[in-house]
Design brief:
By secondary structure, the protein is of the alpha+beta class. It has 2 domains: 56 residues, Winged helix-like DNA-binding domain superfamily/Winged helix DNA-binding domain (Arc Repressor Mutant, subunit A, Orthogonal Bundle); 77 residues, Alpha-Beta Plaits, CATH 3.30.70.920. The protein is 32% helix and 21% strand. It has 5 helices and 6 strands, in the order ββαααβαββαβ. The chain has a 4-stranded antiparallel sheet. A hairpin with a 4-residue loop joins strand 1 and strand 2. Helix 2 packs across helix 3. It is elongated, with a radius of gyration of 21 Å.
Length: 164
Amino acid sequence: MSNVDPTFDSASGLDQVDLKLVRLLEQDGRMSYADLSEAVGLTPGGARARVKRLRERNVIQVIGVPSPAAVGLNSIASLQIEVSGDIDEIADTISQFEGVRYIVLGSGRFSMLVEVYAANHSELFSIINRKIRKVSGISRLETFVYDSVHTHEPFFPAKQQYGR
């Protein structure tokens, strides 16, 4: 007889109850512990303890994420950047500019992707061309301005386990 728990995912360190809690909180981060407990078969105190553990382990953050347009950010661009200097130093510098919300470092043709948000195209132009392009160590920058967002799926960890 095996001692392996089939409900435990050793890669993530989460069991099926944890994964279901994550999925539920992805759908509604304000769901009550009573509702969570009913959905996963725990007491409200048990659900609260599980959620607390998930937060302490940085598995989840329960935050409000506004729509950019709802808060006046109507112009968005993705910048693909090649660097010739210290990538971390360049990323640190770029991260200080207002409107920069997301920076990814990677390998390939471009070593950095930056997402920039602004109130309008004029402000976006200024951030990109009067600030970011002037950062020492950027050897090439290509801009992709978003005209519309077709799909935005902010759900990550429990996606595969529940057929989303």
